[in-house]
């Protein structure tokens, strides 16, 4: 009996009846069958593939809320992803769910996010005939774009959790945990970043929310995690009073930060940058990198250009725009 097989036996004695086991034939199904690893279960393999892929590394230079902020301590899409994974794993461990599956979904949930955060997502959704949603693109990255067009060949449960982390309901409790961990993470770290940026102060937060959730980031995260655990594994959610306070705090953040003119003052420039890059490559598909030219030929130019631009980091998009449209001084 190898290491993986020993662990699979242990899973059955440790995990909850609601947990997705790494031996589940439906949830561990891959598009292409593969020989099993003697050391890692199927969800551990998915986690490792995501962690080592190019799209994951590019998250370090993609916007979370503030566009390319000056300062080492503001969140990027990568640090957001790591915080989601930590929160999701804590919840799953407390509920005796599958931590390996939870971590894989959490690490992969934003693989397809566009440059410049939700601003970039909105522009691509408007100008691309196929539409653009980052959770759908994250699945496309995993299935098609990574690994030189072969994809990562992830299990069904991981792909399903990624696809449903924003809208819809995942087929596993672990996928549902990641959806809540995502909102727990971004609301609270965006509060911290907004205070650092001078957009908010602690006293601005609604008292009716902080009295229930806590007056520090740590206390709020602890309260929200405890609420999910208390609600139980049969359906993954917050307790009703905590749900209301969470939703009210989220609405406050949309009013004061996510639509704040000071926080968003550079977004119009980012929108024009994406529009101009998109238009340029639609008219010049021969200028696309080879892997995207192949997509343009097999599918259509819009699909290829959207894939290319959505995969760019903020810095790469700015550098490419500069190279294409800003005159270079003669040396």
Could you characterize the architecture of this molecule?
By secondary structure, the protein is mostly helical. It is 60% helix and 0% strand. It contains 16 helices and no strands. It has helices at 3-14, 42-51, 54-58, 77-94, 99-108, 117-127, 134-145, 156-163, 173-196, 207-213, 217-231, 240-258, 267-283, 290-298, 301-310, 314-325.
Question: How would you summarize this macromolecular structure in one to three sentences?
Answer:
The protein is mainly alpha-helical and 331 residues long.
Tell me the span between the first and last alpha carbons. Answer: 67 Å
List low-pLDDT spans. Answer: none
User: Biggest sheet: strands, sense, closure?
Assistant: none
Structural class designation:
mainly alpha
Percentage of residues in helical conformation: 55-70%
SSE arrangement:
Elements: H1 3-14, H2 42-51, H3 54-58, H4 77-94, H5 99-108, H6 117-127, H7 134-145, H8 156-163, H9 173-196, H10 207-213, H11 217-231, H12 240-258, H13 267-283, H14 290-298, H15 301-310, H16 314-325
Helix pairs in contact: 2-5, 4-5, 4-9, 4-11, 5-8, 5-9, 6-13, 7-8, 8-9, 9-11, 9-12, 10-12, 13-15, 13-16, 14-15
